[in-house]
Design a protein that fits this description.
With about 80 residues, chain A is mainly beta. Chain A contains no helices and eight strands. In chain B, helix 2 links the parallel strand 4 and strand 5. Chain B is globular, with a radius of gyration of 17 Å. Classes of the chains: A mainly beta (about 80), B alpha+beta (about 230).
Chain lengths: ~80, ~230
């Protein structure tokens, strides 16, 4: 089981908004595939998958805000 | 297993001095510059190329960032098409912006793995390069809190919006050196009711040369990013 965590993005940046999931729950993903796009005020960035496997659970939907260190999804 | 950008599949950070190449595209079609950016992001990300600072100008074009609301484009699409203005939805932060000839557009394709790994500091560093450049022209540029970009009084002179993939940046900033500012009336820049200004508007048309501004900006980027 691998958790997809929102990493440290920089000084003063404590959260980001999920703008796009490239995969849906239940789909197979490969390590390094772009998994989810997030945005802060003036930056958009892709988070790659940390592992290959099934995207078991998505914890934050598009439009929702995630804090640094929180898990966005689980991969089994 | 927990994963962060700093570990796991991307390995440790290489310990080398940050440096970057220059790629001056001149006046180039937006779609062509976008394709070049995308290619460079892959090459810099995989280590085939070092970080690269792209400089260019575009014919009038409107781009919508990830936070963009289409209502911030104030003319219908067919009217824009008749004016020869295309619109693009792009993978970058921010709302709507516009590029015009005479505006210097700068796309740093920088590996932040080799420079601080900090999106906030990267945005501030780009602002700093612009502020230093303006100071050299005796223009007092300022930052506004929670409003990324560079301003002169209440008017905006430089806009910023970036994209980051595997710690490699793309998109970037546009500095109004000159150009027809009336075209900004086609949009609400950054989704706000703001006025734009340019170096030419402030200093007079004969006192600013975009080629010279490019040279100074490269120098300021090297200073700020210590390349």
């Amino acid at each position: 089981m691998a958790k997809v965590i929102l990493p440290e993005l920089g000084e003063g940046i404590t959260k980001a908004t999920v703008s796009y999931w490239y995969f849906q729950a239940g789909q197979e993903v490969k390590e390094k595939d772009d998994l989810v796009e997030l945005t802060t005020d003036k930056a958009a960035f892709n988070l790659p998958s940390p592992a290959s496997g099934k995207l078991k659970k998505i914890f934050f939907l598009e439009g929702q805000s995630v804090k640094v260190g929180e898990a966005l999804a689980e991969i089994e | 297993m927990f994963w962060t950008w700093s570990h796991g599949c991307f390995g440790p950070d290489p310990i080398i001095m940050f440096s970057f190449d220059i790629l001056d595209l001149g006046l180039v079609d937006y779609s062509e510059a976008l394709a070049i950016q995308n290619r460079l992001v892959c090459e810099v990300s995989s280590g085939v190329k070092i970080s690269t600072l792209i400089l260019c100008e575009h014919n009038p074009v409107i781009t919508l960032g990830r936070q963009a609301n289409e209502k911030n484009i104030l003319k219908p699409q067919d009217a824009l098409m008749k004016m020869g203005i295309s619109t693009y939805n792009v993978h970058r932060g921010g709302d709507v912006t516009m590029h015009i000839p005479g505006q210097l557009v700068v796309y740093p394709i920088f590996s932040l793995r080799q420079w601080k790994r900090d999106l906030h500091k990267f945005l501030r560093a780009m602002e700093e390069a612009i502020l230093l450049l303006l100071r050299g022209y005796h223009i007092k540029g300022i930052r506004k809190e929670n409003n990324t970009g560079v301003w002169v009084g209440d008017k905006k002179i430089a806009s910023i919006g970036i994209s980051v993939s595997r710690w490699v940046t793309s998109h970037g900033l546009s500095l109004n050196v000159g150009g027809n500012l009336d075209l900004f009336s086609l949009i609400r820049p950054c989704g706000q009711d703001i006025m734009m200004t340019s170096m030419t508007e402030i200093l007079g048309p004969n006192n600013v040369n975009i080629e010279k501004v490019k040279g100074v900006l490269i120098h300021k980027f090297r200073e700020v990013f210590k390349a």
